């Protein structure tokens, strides 16, 4: 048991090494004024020493370690995200080449009040993600448009990326058809509608706060006069948004988007169809870095799971929560959140994190009289908060690749995530404020 206990703790060292190298190098270079500090040691390179350490720490043979590495990289969720990355890159590349991005940006400038691009994008992303139920799908559809807004208005790319990330995570957390909602309600055995209305207590105040913050930040933006554009060039974007919101599979949405962008270019902007293959390949190449990093993160997470690192975290958080007694179960609700939060930082997938920690969370909820709709909400909300601040998560990586900025710049401008964290803690705490004071057991 001691050996397993030690192995479980050691299995967390590689992820700590990766975070230290990736963030430590970037922050250090930023302190010394180096241009593009987080791009000097890209995540897909910084994670290699961590993978080597994971192989060294694995008590089994080298062949077994390689098998674990491949299994993690080939995880269904990881491969799904990687294909979405590639198709999103291809669509962005083709849409840019055919003039679609410029057309949509200028159309958007007509619709969004001057100086309010930031709150406008945040609200649009929130509504679309609420309807689609997927943050990655929302980002894939809107990121090229948002990038065009950044270039046309002069608003900083990190701010616009943060607004898009926050809006996308709003729907990921709240939507009834979100995969995190499905996972959290199934593991906590509660209806989706019950969870939705409970979740609204957390998400809606954070949404309002974030909209006001972005409105304040955007008021000094200079008015922009849209350039002449063809409405026909906006049709591919309008089509993929409608199809995505209608529930069509994101793969089909992006494939149809590529085809429609190419066709409208041929018929309306003089696009040479012979360039389509090159443009698609260029879009694939733009996503190469995040593709590799996503697979490597999957590998690292598999090592941690197989060696007991996640279970070790769960056991310690559970024991800590048991030491803290408070009528109203504040400590236990918070323990559920911390458990899934830390798990997500280890495996970089909020859905998988909910599934992994679901049983323990349900046991804590039943033992301490936490309603299933509340435990499902806390589980989902903290998982989405963690994912929104994860610089090696799928959402941040996709935005990083599209905007050509570091993932760290993306997550540090996720104001919705910060607001949601504060609101969530406040709602949980205020719900127990009138009950007995905190008591620490001996």
UniProtKB/TrEMBL annotation:
One of its GO terms (cellular component) is plasma membrane. Its main location: membrane. Residues 50-215 form the Na+/H+ antiporter NhaC-like C-terminal domain. One of its GO terms (molecular function) is antiporter activity. Keywords: Antiport, Cell membrane, Membrane, Transmembrane, Transmembrane helix, Transport. It comes from the Bacteria. The keyword Membrane applies. It is found in: Cell membrane. The chain crosses the membrane at residues 12-32, 38-57, 78-97, 117-143, 202-218, 238-263, 334-356, 376-393, 413-433. Pfam families: Na_H_antiporter. Belongs to the NhaC Na(+)/H(+) (TC 2.A.35) antiporter family. This is Sodium:proton antiporter. It comes from Fodinibius salipaludis. The lineage of its organism: Bacteria, Pseudomonadati, Balneolota, Balneolia, Balneolales.
């Amino acid at each position: 048991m001691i050996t397993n206990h030690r192995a479980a703790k050691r299995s967390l060292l590689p992820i700590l090494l990766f975070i230290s190298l990736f963030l430590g190098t970037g922050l250090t270079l930023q302190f010394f004024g180096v241009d593009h500090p987080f791009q000097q040691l890209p995540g897909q390179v910084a994670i290699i020493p961590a993978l080597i350490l994971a192989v060294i720490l694995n008590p089994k043979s080298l062949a077994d370690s390689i098998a674990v590495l491949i299994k993690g990289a080939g995880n269904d969720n990881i491969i799904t995200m990687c294909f979405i990355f590639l198709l999103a890159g291809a669509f962005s590349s083709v849409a840019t080449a055919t003039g679609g991005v410029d057309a949509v940006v200028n159309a958007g400038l007509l619709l969004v009040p001057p100086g309010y691009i930031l709150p406008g994008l945040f609200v649009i992303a929130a509504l679309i993600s609420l309807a689609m139920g997927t943050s990655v799908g929302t980002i894939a559809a809107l990121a090229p448009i948002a990038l065009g807004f950044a270039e046309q208005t002069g608003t900083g790319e990190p701010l616009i990326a943060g607004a898009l990330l926050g809006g996308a995570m709003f729907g990921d957390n709240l939507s009834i058809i979100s995969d995190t909602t499905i996972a959290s309600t199934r593991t906590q055995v509660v209806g989706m509608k019950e969870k939705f209305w409970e979740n609204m207590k957390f998400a809606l105040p954070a949404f309002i706060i974030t909209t006001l913050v972005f409105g304040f930040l955007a008021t000094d933006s200079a008015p922009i006069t849209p350039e002449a554009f063809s409405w026909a060039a906006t049709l591919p974007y309008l089509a993929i948004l409608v199809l995505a919101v209608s529930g069509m599979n994101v793969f089909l949405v992006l494939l149809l988007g590529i085809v429609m962008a190419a066709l409208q270019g041929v018929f309306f902007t003089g696009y040479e169809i012979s360039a389509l293959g090159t443009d698609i390949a260029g879009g694939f190449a733009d996503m190469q870095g995040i593709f590799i990093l996503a697979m490597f993160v999957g590998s690292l997470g598999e090592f941690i799971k197989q060696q007991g690192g996640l279970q070790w975290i769960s056991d310690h958080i559970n024991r800590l929560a048991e030491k803290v007694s408070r009528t109203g179960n504040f400590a236990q609700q918070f323990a559920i959140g911390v458990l899934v939060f830390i798990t997500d930082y280890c495996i970089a997938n909020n859905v998988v994190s909910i599934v992994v920690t679901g049983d323990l969370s349900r046991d804590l909820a039943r033992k301490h009289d936490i309603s299933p709709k509340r435990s499902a909400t806390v589980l989902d909300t903290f998982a989405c908060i963690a994912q929104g601040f994860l610089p090696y998560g799928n959402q941040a990586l996709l935005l990083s690749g599209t905007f050509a900025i570091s993932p760290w710049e993306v997550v540090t401008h996720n104001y919705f995530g910060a607001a949601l964290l504060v609101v969530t803690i406040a709602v949980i705490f205020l719900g127990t404020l009138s009950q007995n004071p905190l008591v620490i057991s001996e």
